[in-house]
């Protein structure tokens, strides 16, 4: 193994512990969302009628973030928990399971969308990253509004349904905008290399091919071998891929070393694939996140 590959493997092995920020207790009905993407979607459905607490802070990794004892207690006191499911929230799933055992109602978003299996040799099982296809997000809005109406006291079911329809129209507009942004890309440019396998749904929706990923899995907790990385570098050279898309929550150095080893001119492009950003950083909401990603993907692959 040469020095560059060794440095890359060390970089992958170093992970920062991400702890969810404590939420302010306001009293009254409360929905607790595990991820900030789902928290934003839920807030758009309920508006100001219900407090929506999001456990995952901006810029965090949904696979590895953890929560405090106070936040774990908040889960058990929630009127409704909204989780992604499909194995995404690896660091907090046991807390969600404990709350479910205590009888807290839980809406698992992954149970209400058409789920893809990982279509790669180095990842298996259900792909949890359904939000990269806006049509899948639209699928869950009606069931989400129904779950909130059923379990959260004091909400207006009719108003919830109307709000869900308004947001569904905004998501449909996003879908059309992304399709238009990608329309100019020829088929030989619709090839993606990412930090880990996160774009299966986007690829299916907008006719892309996923060449490979630096982390050989659907989770950021995996680590590649030297042979995995050498194989990916070869695939990048053979496919003429002009860019590697690195998630904003992951070290850019990982993709940079891979690009160096591939021996080709490859741009490293940062995307917001699994987490919303802080204010003013380009991905404060789900709609903004997807538009930013679409613009960056289309620009890098032209």
From TrEMBL:
Entry keyword set: Metal-binding, Signal, Transport
GO-annotated biological processes: cell adhesion; metal ion transport
InterPro entries associated with the record: AdhesinB (IPR006129), AztC-like (IPR047701), Bact_metal-bind_prot9 (IPR050492), Lipoprotein_PsaA-like (IPR006128), ZnuA-like (IPR006127)
UniProt-listed PROSITE patterns: PROKAR_LIPOPROTEIN
GO CC field: cell envelope
GO molecular function, one term: metal ion binding
Subcellular location, principal: other
Subcellular location, record wording: Cell envelope
Record-stated family: Belongs to the bacterial solute-binding protein 9 family.
Protein name per its UniProtKB record: Zinc/manganese transport system substrate-binding protein
UniProt source species: Diaminobutyricimonas aerilata
């Amino acid at each position: 193994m040469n020095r560059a590959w060794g440095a890359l493997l060390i970089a992958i092995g170093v992970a920062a512990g991400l702890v969810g920020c404590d939420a302010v207790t306001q009293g009254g009905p409360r929905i607790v969302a595990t991820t900030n993407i789902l928290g934003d979607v839920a807030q758009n459905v309920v508006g100001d009628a219900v407090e929506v607490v999001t456990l995952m802070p901006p810029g965090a990794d949904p696979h590895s973030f953890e929560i405090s004892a106070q936040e774990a207690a908040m889960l058990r006191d929630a009127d409704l928990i909204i989780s992604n499911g499909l194995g995404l929230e690896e660091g907090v799933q046991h807390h969600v399971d404990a709350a479910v055992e205590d009888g807290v109602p839980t809406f698992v978003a992954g149970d209400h969308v058409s789920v893809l299996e990982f279509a790669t040799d180095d990842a298996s099982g259900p792909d949890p990253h359904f939000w990269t296809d806006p049509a899948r997000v639209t699928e869950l809005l009606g069931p989400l509004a129904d779950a909130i109406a059923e379990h959260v006291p004091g909400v207006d079911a009719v108003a919830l349904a109307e709000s869900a329809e308004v947001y569904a129209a905004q998501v449909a507009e996003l879908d059309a905008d992304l399709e238009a942004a990608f329309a100019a890309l020829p088929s030989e440019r619709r090839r993606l290399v990412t930090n880990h396998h996160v774009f299966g749904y986007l690829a299916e929706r907008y006719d892309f091919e996923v060449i490979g990923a630096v982390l050989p899995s659907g989770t950021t907790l995996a680590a590649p071998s030297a042979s995995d990385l050498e194989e990916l570098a070869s695939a990048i050279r053979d496919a003429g891929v002009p860019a590697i898309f690195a998630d904003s929550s992951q070290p850019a150095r990982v993709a940079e070393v891979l690009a160096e080893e591939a021996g080709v001119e490859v741009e490293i492009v940062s995307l917001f694939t699994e987490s919303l950003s802080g204010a003013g950083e380009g991905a404060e909401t789900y709609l903004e996140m997807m538009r930013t990603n679409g613009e960056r993907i289309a620009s890098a692959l032209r």
